[in-house]
Amino acid sequence: MNKSYISIWNEALGSWVAASENMSARGKRSKSRTVAGAIATAVVLAGVSGTAASAVIGTPVEATNGTYTGTDTDSASATAPDSVAVGAGATASAQGTTAVGGASLADALNATAIGIQATASGEASNAIGWHSMASGSGSNAIGQYANAAGDWSMALGYEADATNYMSTAIGTLAAANADNSVALGAYSVADRADVVSVGNAGAMRQITNVAAGTQDSDAVVVSQLRNVSTALGGGAAVNADGSIAAPAYNVGGTAVDNVGDAIINLDGRTTQNTSQITSLLNGSAGLMQQDASTRAITVAKDMDGTVINVAGTAGTRTVTGVAAGAVRAASADAVNGGQLYGTAWSTAKALGGGSIVLADGSISAPKFSVGGSTVYSVGEAVTNLDVRTTQNTEDIAQNTTSITNVQNQLADGTVGLVQQDANTRDITVAKDMDGTVVNVAGAAGNRTVTGVANGAVNASSVDAINGSQLYGAASSTAEALGGGSTVNADGTLSAPSYSVGGATVHSVGDAVTNLDGRTTQNTEDITKLQTQVGDVGTQLSAAVQYDRRADGSVNLGAVTLGGGQSTGPVILTNVANGTSQYDAVNFGQLSALQDQVTDLNGQVWNLGSQLSNVQPGSSNSDASNGSSSGGGNDAVVNAAAPGIGAASTVAGAGAAASGDNATAVGANAAASGVNSTAIGTDSQAANANSVALGQGSSTDRDNSVSVGSATQQRQITNVAAGTADTDAVNVGQMNSSVAQGVQQANNYTDQRINATNQAINDVAKNAYAGIAAAMAMPNMTPSGPGKTIVAAGGATYKGGSAAAVGATYRSRNNKWLVNAAMSVTSTGDAGVRAQVGYEF
User: What pTM was estimated for this model as a whole?
Assistant: First the structure.
């Protein structure tokens, strides 16, 4: 029969000795109680006392007269401080070790071996079960032949095998043979590092009731895969084996079967679009382009079409920023208002007679005093000129064809940019948009507009004219004026030089005045002759004869028809056409002369119309119709300029640009700030570098752009999305930014809440699993003395679960109970419990 022994203190020997638990103490019964108390104290000290102690329960010994002898050599051994050995051949040879069971071995620091031939050879290891082995540091082997060889490994189940660092094998014959691997379930094999296996190559398992993953490293479920396939579109679906059937996309006419190829296709086309858009933005592509080297801007230079139209929904537009074009016979450059003003001013000066350039750019009619009467045209003055004036008239008449040709050439041109009609090939600039100004000025200043076709020249024309047209008009005017007048390089006319009556004059007005004086003198002389001829006629009323002078001599230079007897003018009929200087002219010749004079007068007025019907410009660099005036770096258009700053521009009745480098366009527009711009009726730009756009708009600070006033605001529409830090943003961008900010805030809040919830859930899971571990720990009592019971338990609590195994031994004297157990929770935590109890 097996016996249990305990270590007791031998007072005679002064040492601990082995004693049967059934033996009696010497002396009185109270002494027996004392011995039992000492035994219990020794056992407790072996487990918890800070003082080095050991406890051995092994083969029986006998004590005779103070001498203790074992009956056999098979005994438990606890040779290290704080060690416990229970069972035949049990060995606890390292500090803090526990060996419970026959031939059990715990030979590493703080190791525990429970079960027959259980071996715990790893530091702080636990081996529970028959032939269980825990050889890795911190390892746990629970179950018959369970093996935990890796450091911090766990083997739970019959022949469960965890051989590598932090490996876990749970289940009969489960094997975890790689670092940090987990094998769950009978026959499961985990042979790769950092994996969890729930089966083996020949017998796989499904993992069911898995919640949908929420973090990047969470497992996903089939429903989530279906969501992925739905998001992929293109017919993508989850196959029966869990794989995803490839989608089918049609991208740009190309069939692709994966998202990567679709993105590559879209990226290529997007890149191409971006490149083309970039080319349009930097001027290297499109109808309007800018040369990267010369910085010259061209419009549809590689396309056909003969018309550029800048008119929009609000009507015609002013083309501004036009540099002075070349003015010569072969020039096709657009000319600006400053150039046309120079031509108009020089023309008015050449005409004389008080002619000036009016506010609308037209030239006022001259005022000549001829023969005591006032005339308002060159034609009327010419009727009173002498033969040399008649010669001039003939010269002017010869230019009629030239003027007509110029008119025909001017009638062909219009103005416009940017778009070209596919059928008519006409080019238009923003024809479907509002706005009244087209500005070609750039960062380097005004630009010359070249390639300008001849514009129409008539009373209703709004076409731009080119340099050659202006040169032609100026040239024909110079030719009509005669007197050596020529067209200067800047398009103005040089003053003519006439030699009249021995004097040199430099305007038609001065010439007319000279001729008028001499003609008046001739008239007085003729009157005197007529008086003399009248006297002779009275005497020779019945005959045609020479008149006589006052002294009675014959005046061979005068003949009075009818003599003194005639009561009225006498008709001289059958008069042949005069052919020489002193021949009489007949009515037919006089009528022809009158027609020529009338035609000349009409030509002069037509010329004035040709120079006054082009759309007005707003600065000295604008294309203009002659209704603009300016000088130097300033310009005044259609208005008397109440205040002109240096290098300023004014356009509109009552407009004022009193600030330097200021621009005022529109009736009563005022630009008083330095570098300010006011565009629109009653617009006010009073601050430096400010811009007021639109009727009634006003600025209230420097370096600002205003499209309204404090009481009348405007929306700015069709604003492209800003790309640079200083660009304006549109409502779409703002809404997107707000939505993005809100989304980011929501995402951050959701992440923090999810993290908090996850932390709480982790704590709860660990707590629930810990409760389940406490519930699962077996605490069964052997049925009788000397009996050992091994039990396993499992428990679940609010989703947390645990499995536990344990062993309990009852001493033969029925006084002692020794219990050890180990649990493993669903969260991967393990716990070990050891208990010793004494009953009395």
Answer: 0.31
